[in-house]
Each structure stands twice: as structure tokens, then as C-alpha cells.
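Need a sequence for this fold. Nothing fancy.
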């Protein structure tokens, strides 16, 4: 059967089914999937996936995962079934065309060559065409192994035909296979596996083409040794890449050393920058010691990396084959008999694996946290890898951003993040140092040293609400680590909130004092913020009560205190005036609207009359309370009659 696994959700779906998810009564194989994952084409020997499948041979089917419908692709324009086997389907990236190989002779009216041909099926129109040369002739030799580009207009394929090339290349012998590129729009083909100078076909078979999205690059396997500018001396099949007339060897080290074994089964990334392939060579990397086929990936003009590596970084215990690379080279799927590529692989049969040559994994913790979060979580918005803290004016909070190399190759990473903004100061430093890398992180990026697989390093940030930070505001840092190898990235988020808060700080001094006391002392009983005066009868003792709004938000602060009693007269006045505010103070409170950092207050005159006994005391417990959140502070004035 054919299955599709969603690597984000882990959900596996069987797709080799008929409309309505009818189970197939025969084997299915050769899957190919569209970019969006909606359409899957495959070959099947089943006869019950569509009605009237009575030809007794393999057919090509297209399954729509959204509509849960299956159609047979290997039919003629009238829907008549093929009279020969059809197989090797590939679907264009957009899902609008399907190319496949068929041995049938009745899919088009003039198919009389008696060998397999490559066909292209138009999904929307339900029509089919055969690959032809510029003169409208079909190939005079067998064709197979199609590879289709993203819009379905270009198809690379393998053929033994001698009559395809539009420019009249020579050297075809009818038995050696070559790779061609077919333009479905203009219906002509050109030779890919040839020498550009002599315009001669390769002197050995070429096959297994893999085309890039735009069709500019075609990777293929070849046994030929006569491509221009290439000294091919290893006596084994190699991987080559074609770029509009020019052919380059892929299965070769950067120093020019060729593989000491056969290379085959290329798969090219959408942009053409990466080619994955199978090879029995043992000299591409130092960690290939299993004497079996392995999967490698080559940057277009760079290094070769082992993909089918086990958990310790060495080649898998058994052979790996059939690679398939994704659009940007960041994930490579393949088949393997090895049992040590993943944990708990004890089933004793071949499995499908997905490896990541380069992969950045970013994790975060706040300075007060014991551990990081975000390991093995990958996204670009910090979901499930966000830390938050509250900030205090002019006091920094710390975040640590750690990047892990989760790929299978050495890599370095570029760490980027936002700069300071209005009301917020942000500084970045390298792990374990006081080296300021703010300009790097907020500019082109701070590049880490090269990390081996599993290696880790990072930066830390100090985030400070400045003096003009707005109460209730927040600062968000999206910090991203990007692989220098393939630009895959992961983002974590740090959110520093500067909540609005109230903090009335009440101070007191007697009229005879120079300074206030009580600054920074907050309590509800006047401890350490009490003043005392002695006064004669019918004389005033004067106290000044000053309140500061030491919160970060504008606030209304009420001053409350006791009134006259038992021969003691108390009057309260607004600072700097003779405005009597006694009724306010002793009742609902005298209200002061203060911006953050502002100060104001009242003063009190306390007078004992002649009926008050000598040495009697009178206490004013004065309270300043925030209307924002009811926080308060108390100072105390004690007057003794003398």
C-alpha cells in the first residue's frame, strides 16, 4: 500500500485506495505527491480502485486526499483503459500534470513502436499526450523514468531512442540509454546526457533523471566517461547535473577525488541547490564504514555529507537506498535495512526514514528558570517556546537563547533578534562572556562557531524598561537561529511586561526638621516614619506630610487622617497654600492626581487647648492610599501637651 505521513502531526493515511477509501485488492507502489500534499499518484495492480478495471495489468492512479476520490490516469482521451502495463508515475508540483511510463499501444492513436513510452496526463482536462520529437514522431526506442517539473511543462526522461534530439546530436546506438528533456508546450526534446563540444551522446548509459522545479537543472546517473571537461576514471556510475548544455559531476569531493564505488538514484531539490543520491563509495566521508550502499547529499558546488547516519554519526548498519529530497534540501527521505538509524527499530524489515542534514533548534529560558524550553519544537513564531517576565524600571531581566545543531552535519548558525525600542533597552552577549554582540544580532546576525551534530551554544539578552517605558507596555523579542547550511530556522520568543503598578510612598517631617523621613519605607503602622513634637496649650504643632507616586502609572492618591477630639484641634491644609482641606482628609480623603514620579501633600496644625492635661499625647496616623490598587503607606505624628 501507499501511505502519507504528516511530519507535523504524525498522522499516517493510506492513500492507495479507491473513491470512498475502498481498500485495494492488489499491490500498490511508485508514489509521487504534489507540493501541497493533496494529490498522490501511484502504480497499482489492484482492479477495484475504479470501475471497469479489467485489463489485468498495472495502472497509474491519482488520489485526491481532500475529496477522497481516485481516478485512473493511464487511459486514453476517451477513458479507455490501457492494453499494457503503466508505471513510474510522477506528479508536477502544482498537481496539474502526471507523467508516467506505459507499455500500452492504445493510449494515443499512432503508438506503433512496440516499446514503452513516456506519457503526460492533463489532470484538469483528462487528456493524454505522448513524448514526441519536433517532427511529431514518437521515439524509435524505449523510453521510461520520467521526472516532471513543478508546472508540468518540462519532463526529463530516459530513452534508447535515436530520434529525439532537436539539434541532431550524434552517437546514438539504439541500445545505450540517454537522458532527454522534453518541452511539453512546444513538443520537442533535447539531449541532456551529452558532450556539449562535440554534441555527442554519452559513451555509456545515462538514466534516473531528476529535474528541478524550474527545469534549469537535471541530475542523472551515468556510466559515460566522455562529458566535456570531466576526467572520469573511477569505472563506476556517477551522478551528474545538467544546466542548459553544461554537465558537471556531482559524486566527487571538493578536492576532485571521485567516488570509489558506484553512485546512482539522484534526487534534486526544488531549487537545484542540493542533490541526494545513493552510493556504494566509501571515500566520500570518514564515517562511512559499513561496506554497503548509503545515502549522501551534495551541495551543488560544495561538500558531500552522509545522510544515512546512525545515532552516533556513523553509517547505518545496513544498506540505504532510494532517496527523495524536499524542496530546499532540509529533509531527505530514504529506505533502509539498517536497524540503528532510529531508536527502537527492532522490526527486522526495511523502513522509511527522514533525515535532516542541517537543522537549527532554538531553546529559551528566563534568567530565573532552571531549564530551557523549546527543544525539538520548530516554528517561526515562538509557539510553545515562549518565556515571559515582569520588568522593573531601569532594572534588567535576563533571557538565555540556546541553539542546538539537530542536523547530521557540522554547521554554524546565525542568531538574529530585534534591537532596542522606545522605552526599552536590549543588549545581547555571547554565552559565558561579557562580549557585547548586540550590533551583530540586531544587524546581519551573530554567527556561531561551527558546531558538530548535537553541539550547542548561544547568546543571552538583558532587557531593561527605561525611564520612559510606558506603564502597561511590553517588549517582545523574536530571536531566530538560522542554519548557515540550508537556511532552515527556528524562533523563540521572550516577552517582558512592564505592568502598571501603584506605589504611594508617604513621608513626614516636623516643622522644626530639615528633612523628611520615611522615604522607601512602606508599612501600615508608621514604624520608622514617626515624628514627635512638644507643644504648649493653645499653640500649634506643625507637621508636613508628603506623598510620592513611586509607581509607574498615573494615580490618584488619597490622604486620610483623624480629626479634632477631646480638646485637640486638627486642621489640614494644601501644600503651599492656606486652603483648608480638613473635611476631605478626615472623611473620604484628600485626593491628589499624581503622575508617575510626582509628589505633593498636606500639612497639619495640631493645637491642644487648656483643658488638655499636661503630658497627654495626641497621635495622627496618616495614610496615603492608591486608588489604582489600594496600596497604602502610613506615617505617624505624635504631639505632647506641655
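Here you go.
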Amino acid at each position: 500500500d501507499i501511505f502519507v505521513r504528516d511530519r507535523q502531526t504524525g498522522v499516517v493515511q493510506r492513500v492507495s485506495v479507491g473513491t470512498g477509501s475502498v481498500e485495494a485488492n492488489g499491490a500498490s507502489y511508485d508514489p509521487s505527491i504534489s507540493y501541497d500534499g493533496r494529490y498522490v499518484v501511484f502504480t497499482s495492480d489492484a482492479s477495484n480502485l475504479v470501475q471497469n478495471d479489467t485489463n489485468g495489468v498495472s495502472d497509474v492512479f491519482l488520489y485526491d486526499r481532500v475529496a477522497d476520490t481516485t481516478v485512473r490516469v493511464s487511459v486514453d482521451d476517451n477513458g479507455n483503459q490501457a492494453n499494457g502495463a503503466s508505471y513510474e508515475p510522477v506528479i508536477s508540483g502544482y498537481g496539474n500534470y502526471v507523467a508516467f511510463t506505459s507499455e500500452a499501444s492504445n493510449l494515443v492513436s499512432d503508438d506503433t513502436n512496440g516499446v514503452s513510452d513516456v506519457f503526460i496526463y492533463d489532470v484538469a482536462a483528462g487528456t493524454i499526450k505522448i513524448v514526441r520529437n519536433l517532427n511529431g514522431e514518437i521515439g524509435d526506442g524505449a523510453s521510461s523514468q520520467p521526472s516532471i517539473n513543478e508546472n508540468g511543462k518540462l519532463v526529463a526522461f530516459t530513452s534508447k531512442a535515436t530520434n529525439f534530439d532537436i539539434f541532431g546530436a550524434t552517437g546514438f546506438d539504439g541500445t545505450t540509454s540517454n537522458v532527454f528533456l522534453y518541452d511539453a508546450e512546444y513538443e520537442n526534446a533535447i539531449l541532456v546526457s551529452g558532450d556539449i563540444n562535440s554534441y555527442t551522446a554519452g559513451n555509456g548509459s545515462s538514466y534516473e533523471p531528476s529535474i528541478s522545479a524550474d527545469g534549469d537543472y537535471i541530475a542523472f546517473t551515468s556510466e559515460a566517461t566522455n562529458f566535456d571537461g570531466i576526467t572520469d576514471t573511477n569505472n563506476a556510475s556517477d551522478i551528474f547535473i545538467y544546466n542548459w548544455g553544461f554537465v558537471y559531476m556531482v559524486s566527487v569531493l571538493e578536492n576532485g577525488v571521485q567516488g570509489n564505488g558506484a553512485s546512482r538514484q539522484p534526487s534534486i531539490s526544488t531549487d537545484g541547490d542540493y542533490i541526494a543520491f545513493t552510493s556504494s563509495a566509501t571515500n566520500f566521508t570518514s564515517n562511512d564504514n559499513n561496506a554497503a550502499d548509503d545515502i549522501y547529499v551534495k551541495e551543488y558546488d560544495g561538500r558531500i555529507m552522509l545522510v544515512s547516519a546512525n545515532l552516533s554519526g556513523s553509517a547505518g548498519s545496513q544498506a540505504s537506498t532510494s532517496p527523495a529530497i524536499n524542496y530546499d534540501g532540509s529533509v531527505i527521505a530514504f529506505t533502509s535495512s539498517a536497524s540503528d538509524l532510529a531508536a527502537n527499530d527492532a522490526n527486522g524489515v526495511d523502513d522509511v526514514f527522514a533525515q535532516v542534514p542541517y537543522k537549527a533548534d532554538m531553546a529559551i529560558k528566563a534568567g530565573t528558570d532552571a531549564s530551557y524550553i523549546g527543544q525539538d519544537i520548530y516554528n517561526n513564531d515562538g509557539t510553545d517556546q515562549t518565556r515571559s517576565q515582569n520588568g522593573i524600571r531601569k532594572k534588567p531581566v535576563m533571557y538565555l537563547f540556546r541553539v542546538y545543531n539537530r542536523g547530521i552535519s557540522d554547521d554554524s548558525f546565525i542568531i538574529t533578534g530585534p534591537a532596542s525600542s522606545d522605552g526599552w533597552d536590549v543588549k545581547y552577549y555571547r554565552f559565558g562572556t561579557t562580549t557585547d554582540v548586540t550590533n551583530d544580532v540586531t544587524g546581519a546576525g551573530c554567527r556561531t562557531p561551527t558546531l558538530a551534530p548535537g553541539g550547542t551554544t548561544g547568546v543571552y539578552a538583558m532587557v531593561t524598561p527605561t525611564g520612559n517605558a510606558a506603564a502597561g507596555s511590553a517588549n517582545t523579542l523574536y530571536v531566530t537561529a538560522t542554519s548557515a547550511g540550508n537556511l532552515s530556522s527556528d524562533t523563540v520568543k521572550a516577552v517582558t511586561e512592564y505592568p502598571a503598578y501603584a506605589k504611594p510612598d508617604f513621608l513626614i517631617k516636623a516643622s522644626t526638621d530639615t528633612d523628611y523621613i520615611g522615604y522607601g519605607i512602606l508599612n501600615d503602622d508608621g514604624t520608622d516614619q514617626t515624628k514627635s513634637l512638644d507643644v504648649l496649650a493653645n499653640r500649634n504643632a506643625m507637621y508636613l506630610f508628603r506623598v510620592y507616586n513611586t509607581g509607574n502609572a498615573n494615580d490618584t492618591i488619597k490622604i486620610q487622617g483623624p480629626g479634632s477630639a477631646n480638646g485637640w484641634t486638627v486642621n489640614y491644609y494644601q501644600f503651599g497654600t492656606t486652603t483648608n482641606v480638613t473635611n476631605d482628609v478626615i472623611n473620604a480623603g484628600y485626593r491628589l492626581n499624581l503622575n508617575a514620579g510626582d509628589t505633593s501633600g498636606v500639612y497639619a496644625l495640631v493645637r491642644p487647648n487648656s483643658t488638655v492635661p499636661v503630658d497627654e499625647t495626641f497621635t495622627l496616623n496618616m495614610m496615603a492610599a492608591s486608588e489604582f490598587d489600594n496600596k497604602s503607606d502610613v506615617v505617624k505624628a505624635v504631639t505632647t501637651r506641655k
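For context: Residues 109 and 642 are 127 Å apart (CA to CA).
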